[in-house]
Amino acid sequence: MLVLLLAAALLTSSPLTVSAQVRARDVGIRTTDGTILQASYFSPGKPGPGILLLHQCRLDRHAWDDLADDLSSGGMHVLAFDYRGYGETTGELPPPPRPLPHDTNTKFSSTISGSWIGHKDVELAYKYLSSLEGVDKTRMAAGGASCGAAFAADLSIHHPEMRALFLMSGQISDAAAAHIAATSWLPVFGAAAMGDMPIAYEGLQAAIATSKNPKSMMKMYPGIRHGVEMFRDHPQLPRAIRSWLKNVLGTDR
User: Which of 175, 183, 130, 185 is nearest to 154 (CA)?
Assistant: First the structure.
């Protein structure tokens, strides 16, 4: 059984510069093997939906800081965490049991079973977020970039309470694509750069095209940036994500 621990020793004042109404702090989430997943939690200071943000492979949780602050100021409870071996989380993700050729420059594959430790950590972080005071468990969401998009999409398969999913520059599993096609209550926002590798958007684009939810959409941007790196060239993208999430989750700020 996964055990959650929010230890007092792991609660610190966040070093982030955040909006006046947003309460941000660093937290630690203990796994069953004793690893502490280092995370940042952004609270709007009132009840609202929860969203888990999953970073891309060569970055860490702080890649989401600006967007997390913005989403929280819009009424959402936001959690981002460092995977094992990334950022401030110690340890190392074990190699996936069945790596694919296109995964050679990443530490995990989007096609691995949910029993693999990376998926367990994502599930643990999601349960931690949903347990926090003020988080509306009926309006949960997840977002991810690159390999984080694969994690977010796979997470949605197991959580019918999830009401929004946004994915950037990521290849998703066949199971996640089938879930998107079959789940009319799950709107999906996708974004990618037209000059990126086709593998970063073709499957995502095809999956969103099969969505039966009228609020699902795919946005393609010029350039070659990957994942959150698109924010540099396209400042309208984080604004579009916030606007879309507020619309589908029903926040009032």
Answer: 175
